[in-house]
Amino acid sequence: MKALPPCLRSASSRHGLVQNHALQRRQQLPIATAVLCSTHSKSGRRSFSVLNRPPPNYPGHVPLTGLERAALAVGSGIVSFLDPYRGDMIAALGEATASPYFIERLRRAMLASPTGRRILRDRPRITSSSLNLPRLRSLPARTVGGTYVAWLDREGVSPDTRSSVRFIDDEECAYVMQRYRESHDFYHALTGLPIVREGEVALKAFEFANTLLPMTGLSMLAVATLRPAERRRFFAVYAPWAVRNGLRGDEVINVYWEEEMETDVDALRRRLGIERPPDLREIRKREREERRRVKEGAAAQAVAS
């Protein structure tokens, strides 16, 4: 074979180098892509500071640094303990403590359920207009819709008071938290627990056993602010009920409430495996009447003497 001229040998050598370099780049590309995807999936967001905050992932989103998230959790937790009716602080506590692990667990629970997957796909919102409250008032009292709207009217609350999620980075996880938040009144209606402090603590205990969201567990610390009789009743009656039903019942986040309005409420409880607890409002009413009778009897004895 004849030797190649020097100019051709040089061109061939350069061509081989280019081919080798391109091959190495192609081999390295999948590795780099895998590393990037792995890093993204583990962190969920790139690190940043308050000076270079990234753009929001959805309308209303506020990206937080780790330090900001910790400060928000501590501050909102203290305010929520001192004033359990501060819904904004309870919402902030829920978002600051749910990310990234616990809200991901709730999202996986929805993805594991056919109904949960439909909810994530449809993304319905629970508001007075979307539920058509006048229509619900025309439903029989034993239906889910009739029970729910009767509870709203009795407690004087509205489904339009739930604030929007702001501090959860993943957009789908933010919707999961929003769905939990807007479904809270359905949990009240399903269990019959009133919105007084004792009822809220009992419901939060049930939610913690069912959802494992840290905020619901931390809210149980409010049991320390109950009266001694209420605290004894919680530990004797409502805490055991909450643990038993929350653990054995189905994931309530997977209930498509909008499709259950005409379902018999007792049938839904049986399907979910949830017992209705003793009527707390009726118990408290009887206690008030008993205290009034005792007070009136003592006043009558004082007058007679």
Q: Tell me, what's the shape?
A: globular
Radius of gyration: 29 Å
Distance between the termini: 136 Å
Instruction: Give the proportion of residues in helices.
Output: 55-70%
Query: What amount of the residues lies in strands?
Result: under 5%
Tell me about the biggest sheet?
A: none
Catalogue the unreliable spans.
1-19, 21-44
H/E topology pattern: HHHHHHHHHHHHHH
Main structural class:
mainly alpha
The average pLDDT value, as a whole number, equals 85
Total helical elements: 14
Number of domains: 1
> Count of DSSP E strands?
0
Binding site for Zn(2+): 184-185, 188, 200
Main location: mitochondrion
Subcellular location: Mitochondrion inner membrane
Keywords: Lyase, Membrane, Metal-binding, Mitochondrion, Mitochondrion inner membrane, Ubiquinone, Ubiquinone biosynthesis, Zinc
Labels describing this entry:
single chain; 305 residues; mainly alpha; 14 helices; ubiquinone biosynthesis; Coq4; membrane; 4-hydroxy-3-methoxy-5-polyprenylbenzoate decarboxylase activity
Secondary-structure blueprint:
Layout: H1 6-43, H2 66-82, H3 87-98, H4 101-111, H5 114-122, H6 128-131, H7 133-137, H8 144-155, H9 171-191, H10 197-211, H11 214-219, H12 228-248, H13 265-272, H14 280-304
Explained architecture:
There is one protein chain. This protein is mainly alpha-helical. Helices cover 67% and strands 0% of the residues. The chain has one domain. The protein contains 14 helices and no strands. Helix 2 packs antiparallel against helix 3, helix 4 packs across helix 9 and helix 10 runs parallel beside helix 12. It starts with 5 loop residues before the first helix and ends with a helix.
